[in-house]
Design a protein that fits this description.
With 390 residues, this protein is α/β, with parallel strands linked by helices. It has helices at residues 10-20, 32-45, 61-69, 79-87, 104-113, 123-132, 162-174, 194-214, 238-253, 266-269; strands at residues 27-31, 49-54, 73-76, 95-97, 117-120, 137-141, 150-152, 178-183, 188-190, 220-222, 259-262, 273-283, 292-296, 316-318, 327-333, 342-352, 360-364, 385-389. A hairpin with an 8-residue loop joins strand 15 and strand 16. The longest helix has 21 residues, at 194-214. The chain binds pyridoxal-5'-phosphate. Residues 54, 56-57, 75, 98, 185, 188, 224-227, 263-267 line the site of pyridoxal-5'-phosphate. Keywords: Lyase, Pyridoxal phosphate. The modification N6-(pyridoxal phosphate)lysine is found at residue 56. Pathway: Amine and polyamine biosynthesis; putrescine biosynthesis via L-ornithine pathway; putrescine from L-ornithine: step 1/1.
Length: 390
Amino acid sequence: MVNKGEYVSDEDWRRFLEFSRDLETPCIVVNLQTIRNNFTRLKGLFPYADIYYAVKANPEEEIISLLAELGSCFDIASRPELDKVLALGISPERLSYGNTIKKARDIAYFREKGVPMFATDSKEDLKNIAQQAPGARIYVRILVENSTTADWPLSRKFGCHPDMAYDLLIMARDLGLTPYGISFHVGSQQRDIGQWDDAIAKTRYLFTSLEEDEGIRLSMINMGGGFPANYTQPTNDLAEYSTEIKRYLLDDFGDDLPKIILEPGRSLVGNSGILVSEVILVSRKNNTALNRWVYLDTGKFNGLIETLDESIKYPIVTSKDVVGGKEAEVILAGPTCDSMDILYEDYKYRMPVDLKIGDRLYFLSTGAYTGSYASVSFNGFLPIKTYIMK
Ligand SMILES: *Cc1c(COP(=O)(O)O)cnc(C)c1O
């Protein structure tokens, strides 16, 4: 049985139970107060950094508006994300186009709307930016190796080798753009703080060589996301991330710290959400099988995609949990007719032996990469709904 006190306060749990009692499942309940606290804490631990919330983590309007009110800026990846954020009255000055994969006409659109800053990691994209957004600020994303220590790696697909970043920033200047900085993402749910050390060292090298060889003085480091949310696998506290990262920055940049940007997604909203699902069926594959299969009304296609490869292991509470109650291992699966729709089979959750059809399962820490990461209507199942608890 999960000790839910590690994830949610008694008070918040009571409020949540009351709020969710009559809601149809599956659904996600997001606690806005948790996000407010997370933002305030992050800002306190990184007072020297500007925070650009990665909208993709949870694009609910109330969340964006709350963060805007608290002073956040936003990392935007697409036109619809941009439209949504602008429609909420947020100034384009507070936005950055962080996707390195974009169409020329989308660059033009971002430019027209007044977004000042663009990420890139390739020559062709840079040429498009030079054409569509002359003079814009450019930051180049460098590759960092993070496939083994991040639970949801973002390696390989994004970023370029530092040698190429060097060339791109020279090219940016030559094309009339403003070479502005370096970005990296050490991988989402990154449990090895040392990954920031390597990335910052590479960044330092680029700052120095570009200034010495080319007279290009960069002014910004975008350290991406990667800070953890609270799942079953232990992580260091955010305070330890902050202490260590500050030390890496001081070691490499001393007092001459450039502008620092953070793009948190998961760590800001992850623990704000609780996904409520209902048990559709409990069964065994033969009369003597030790494991029960527990089928739920939520699965990989309506909210829990990050269970792919069992990458993210959410803490799960059931409506039958009792301290000291008898439990046994289960295999958890979703409702669709796709055999990929199994949530956890290798990793065995233990659940009450009297778990029955109609009981509820509560997936804690499901505020990030769930609601917006669901299919439209695979097998006819509707996208999972999010409710905001103020
Ligand atoms: C997804 C993403 C983030 C957020 O990462 P988290 O690990 O959720 O904090 C930040 N920056 C970029 C460019 C991203 O694509």
